[in-house]
């Protein structure tokens, strides 16, 4: 292949992937920027005083990101996974572009937030840190093993109190926030009176679940399977209510008032903008890339899935609430095209300006009000972000 002749310019990528990039109008040179793209960490709120100690541990200076609160950049070769700060839950490994997607939600105290493609949970943890001692976050993912990793992360960072996790297909998920029982007082009263109420979570449950999951042999659930609650915190709104109350379905007009305040649809995609992810295929084998990225892109199923996730996330949003649609693909087909189709089908959806983006090192997408991060523009991983508001009918 001609593209591979100039080794100095061309990244070590297989022909099929280069053809995929070309077909989607994407510049392969972003994959060479990887060596100079910094790594990012987010400091857990409350550990600001530990900064110097963390620097000594990872043996480098942490550069504060002026445009994203709580984030620091490190040289790309620095590994954080073995550091004590990481193991003790003082820092998170999360790309700055992912942090921007969460910030675009404008989370306010008391918000009830839905994260429809939540695993492994870096954004979910950030939402919980932003909420602090109010509101709730509901995480949903179709992959049980990935959501179990998310539960482990909640436990590690001690963030589980206001969170509940459901293994479910996000295109059919229907559980609304349990607004009425997410305050301490209301949760603590009357728990002893009825036997069918959810009691406080115990760690014995995950073992039972594992057994059940092993028996069923399924890793992904289908849209016809009921949601499976694999974790809930004490103030997540689950303790003190019945199964019937938890799974009660609401009409669209009821959701207009009682739906989620904020929704994140960080949709399944080909991950082609996540340069670090693409580089992993060097070790996993380029054949796996063919199967997971290129074949997936060629089918219409992925675009339909993205549109269905976005539509269902929007359906569960209350009027006046906002939704972020993001993918770590840089193709127009998985981003602007999905947004365009969604707007055609949803007259109560308004594409909304992300005010903070004016100060972010990203560039506009092909549609006004949409944004794109990539290694060359923003020195981050690739990410597309669009924000919608739900209008009253
Ligand atoms: C880009 S990842 C999400 C990353 C996550 N938001 C984070 O910050 O760690 C996409 C996720 O979508 C999940 N997924 C794929 N199809 C889904 C579906 N139909 N419903 C819910 N989740 C789905 C995948 O299992 C995967 O975990």
UniProtKB/TrEMBL annotation:
Active site: 328
Domain SAM-dependent MTase RsmB/NOP-type: 20-391
Chain sites annotated for binding S-adenosyl-L-methionine: 141, 169, 266
Gene3D superfamilies reported for this sequence: Vaccinia Virus protein VP39
Any one GO MF annotation of this record: RNA binding
BP term (GO), one: RNA methylation
Key words, A-Z: Methyltransferase, RNA-binding, S-adenosyl-L-methionine, Transferase
Superkingdom of source: Eukaryota
PANTHER family for the chain: NOP2 YEAST -RELATED NOL1/NOP2/FMU SUN DOMAIN-CONTAINING, SAM-DEPENDENT MTASE RSMB_NOP-TYPE DOMAIN-CONTAINING PROTEIN
Annotated family: Belongs to the class I-like SAM-binding methyltransferase superfamily. RsmB/NOP family.
Protein name as catalogued: SAM-dependent MTase RsmB/NOP-type domain-containing protein
Species of origin: Psophocarpus tetragonolobus
């Amino acid at each position: 292949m001609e593209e591979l002749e100039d080794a100095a310019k061309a990244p070590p990528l297989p022909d099929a992937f280069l053809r995929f990039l070309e077909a989607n109008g994407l510049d392969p040179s972003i994959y060479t920027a990887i060596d100079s793209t910094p790594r990012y960490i987010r400091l857990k709120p409350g550990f600001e005083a530990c900064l110097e100690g963390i620097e000594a541990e990872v043996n480098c200076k942490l550069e504060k990101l002026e445009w994203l609160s709580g984030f620091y950049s490190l040289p790309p070769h620095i590994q954080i996974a073995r550091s004590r700060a990481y193991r003790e839950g003082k820092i998170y490994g999360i790309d700055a572009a992912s942090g921007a997607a969460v910030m675009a939600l404008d989370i306010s105290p008391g918000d009830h937030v839905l994260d429809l493609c939540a695993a492994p949970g870096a954004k979910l943890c950030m939402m919980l840190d932003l909420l602090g001692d109010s509101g709730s976050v509901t995480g949903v993912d179709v992959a049980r093993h990935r959501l179990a990793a998310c539960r482990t992360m909640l436990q590690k960072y001690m963030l589980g109190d206001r969170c509940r996790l459901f293994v479910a297909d996000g295109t059919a998920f229907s559980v609304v926030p349990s607004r009425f029982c997410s305050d301490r007082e209301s949760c603590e009263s009357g728990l002893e009176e009825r036997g069918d109420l959810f009691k406080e979570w115990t760690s014995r449950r995950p073992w039972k679940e594992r057994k059940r999951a092993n028996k069923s042999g399924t890793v992904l659930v289908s849209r016809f399977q009921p949601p499976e609650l694999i974790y809930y915190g004490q103030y997540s709104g689950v303790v003190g209510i019945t199964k019937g109350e938890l799974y009660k379905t609401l009409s669209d007009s009821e959701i207009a008032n009682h739906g989620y305040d904020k929704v994140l649809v960080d949709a399944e995609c080909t991950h082609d903008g996540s340069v670090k992810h693409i580089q992993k295929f060097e070790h996993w084998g380029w054949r796996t890339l063919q199967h997971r990225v290129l074949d997936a892109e060629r089918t219409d199923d992925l675009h339909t899935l993205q549109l269905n996730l976005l539509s269902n996330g929007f359906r569960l949003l209350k009027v006046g609430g906002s939704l972020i649609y993001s993918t770590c693909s840089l193709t127009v087909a998985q981003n602007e095209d999905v947004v365009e189709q969604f707007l055609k089908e949803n007259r109560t959806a308004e594409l909304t300006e992300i005010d903070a983006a004016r100060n972010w090192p990203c560039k506009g997408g092909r549609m006004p009000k949409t944004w794109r991060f990539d290694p060359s523009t923003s020195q981050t991983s690739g990410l597309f972000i669009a924000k919608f508001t739900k209008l009253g009918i």
